[in-house]
Amino acid sequence: MARGRVVKGFYDRFWKEHEAFSSLVEGLAAPGDRERFASVTLGQLIFVTFVQRRGFLDDDRDYLRNRLWLPRRRPTFFRHFLRRLFHEGLTSPKAERKADLDALLGRVPSFNGGAFDPSELELAHPDLDVPDEAFERVFDFFDAYRWHLDDRPPAAENEIRPDILGTLFEQSVNFRQERKEKGAYYTGEDITEYIARATIIPSLLGATAERCPDSFRPDGPVWRLLRDDPDRYLFEAARHGVDRSLPAEVAVGLRDVKRREGWNRPSADGYGLPTETWREHVARRERCHEVRRQMRSGKVRAVDDLVTHNLDVRRFAEDAIASCTDPAFLRAVWAALRGLSVLDPTCGAGAFLFAALDVLEPLYDACLNRMEALLREAKRPEEFRDFAAIREDVERHPNRRLFVLKSIVVRNLYGVDLMKEATAVCKLRLLLKLIAQARTAADLESLRDVDFNVRAGNALVGFARSEEVTRPGKGTLDAARLDRHLAGEYGIDAGRAEAFRAWRAGHRPFHWFAEFREVMASGGFDVILGNPPYVESAKVRDQYAIRGYATEGCGNLYAHVVERSKALLAPRGRAGMIVPHSAFCTDRMAPLLGLFAGPKTTWVSTYDIRPSKLFAGVDQRLAIYLTAPSAAQRTYGTRYQRWHEAARPHLFRRLRYADVGAMVYPNAVAKAEDDVERRIWEKLRRRRPLGDDLGGRARVYYHNAPRYWVRAMTFAPYFRNARDGAKVSAQVKSLPVGSRAAAAVTAAALNSSLFYWWFLLFSDSRHLNRREIDRFPLGLGEMADAAKQELQALCGRLMEDYRRHATRKTCQYQATGRVVYDEFFPGRSKGLLDEIDRILARHYGFTGEELDFLVNYDVKFRMGREDGRLTPTGADETDFIFPSRPVYFTGL
Prior knowledge:
With about 900 residues, the protein is of the alpha/beta class. It is about 45% helix and about 10% strand.
């Protein structure tokens, strides 16, 4: 089924119709307002189209078109019919409707929850109107497709499913622009699924363990699942090919480091995952076998272990429920499920909330199935009266799935977003999910009481907890009074009506303890997840101000959202978000990193943008963090993730965490995943930092934006522009070194794979700053004279090699005119770089295993791939590749 072509075709046509509809809107002067109104209205029309195709609107599967054609004396379809359908018919109970409304609309259901509340634009512009021809075009477009509410894969190429609504809104012209300005991006389903399962299910298991500790004894029934069948809870991506005997030419390298010549070649079919080399396969294989051993021996027996080992927690939780024989355990799970609160504080159209729903639904089902089984098997039914009552509650609904989804939407999911249009679409999507379970129009009556916990407001402005409010008015939770109190803290006199209205409209305060009273009164949210906006705080100062945050100095909204989330989290709560990876590797973010200090466990995985990226079309290096309360501070990291697009389906299921708490570095979490990296770190930290030995008249020049190679030179690279003449490029910095000999040793070290590993380990992985150079523990004064002499000689050869392979480039820039510069290709000098690493290995006392790790570190991406062979990658800014013999480690 060419689903991708269908969706793309629908999107392409939709944007054309969106533009046409926007151009016809009357009563809105600003193009941005017309586009915003078009996005919301078309979203509502998509919703109604899904519903009418099921015959739920006056038994008419072409309800909108037929109403458009009805004769009328009033001016337009929009003002005469559609506004009343949206804002009266679909929102008011049948008993409260006026006779003329019933006559106009026919038999239509009504829904609570605010999905069809008038938009701010409609309220502010009462003369807003849309001519009939705009709707004729839209309905013609919609009629070209078949609209289905269920979740099944499409059976025909022109079928449209409800998930189209969220994607369209996320990608709408105006929405994209606003979200871009606010630094927010559409989050892929694999990202939302990973964060949701890694936070929600551990939270649920932890809450269940508190209620029923006997089931979680080390030898109890829960952890016995892991011991009895460990492979069931290892993702296939972790297990793939690991039980096959290795080819002899690969296996020999397990015992002898010097015989790993074939390890950088692509692995064979049946062994490796897409794009995986033998070296990567062996590392994954050894990791899988080790985790298996730990599971079989009973060492994996804590909820956090499930996260650290990246196990299939969804299957584990479902199995624990399905196999339970203790009613107390089942009652504990059910109570934990029903009481679980999951918040996305910047929810947009609801991507993370839907991921949470997908995680929770099978757990509800598993509980209900097990209750049914225990009721059937019960010899004393009176002992299971609570299960029988739950069954009766389910039976009061049209079907069980509707009961489950409604329970999740009403009890578990919470969202807030600054854009009211985003929350409206989120509600429409959730409502469609529920409507899809109805078989008849009468079934929709059970949805009348659904009230979505999705609100519009500024998550960063307002009171989080009641204790933050000093004398707000005796015991009041009224938002208007809280707004007036908060305005005073901003220096706004609430008595000056115009100033107060302007402040309130710009800041859109949201008072968490008033809006979500029960959750906050019980201690806060159990799980907070999401994708906060990545935008400099200065860019929103003309709209609203951020006050009272410890992270104000970080200067970015995502840092404030992380801080606000911490304030909203319950004492035993878990959090998971995707943020710029600079959060965990820059001095500027020190206040943010301070939020992760103290008795808690933090997992951080980091992601590059080359050769593939997490957010399509967005050059944003990212990190995903997970947090959980614990008795002591523990920190786990992964290596810096790079992958080819073919490997994306397995990216999150093959994540490997390592304890990096001992790899202490100012304002950074180490990007490491292997025991050998910790051993290298321990040997490095005994040496003096390079910064202690810098200073003097000699110079080392280095490019300040490496990607796959650090380029350090003892000469100033050629650079000339038409405006300034010959000079050193602004992208090239220099280090003061005491002598030419010291400069040669320093340049050699900075070009090494060892330093490249160090650079990726702690930096933002894009900018080579002095903090990484100064803190690099080279131990120059402690280095043996023989090693210095060897490095000096190698540096001379390397500089000659750099010059020999350099290419002179010419560019034209508006500011400086013609620019001519030399571009260097360190990958072509990999053999010399390996020699430098061997000398440094003797200096530090590295083992053969440690040196092998370093010279092959990230080699697949640094050296490129061509016809299955590793080849040196060219300039950092390109994907230039040329044929060459593969470079392999040959020992100390």
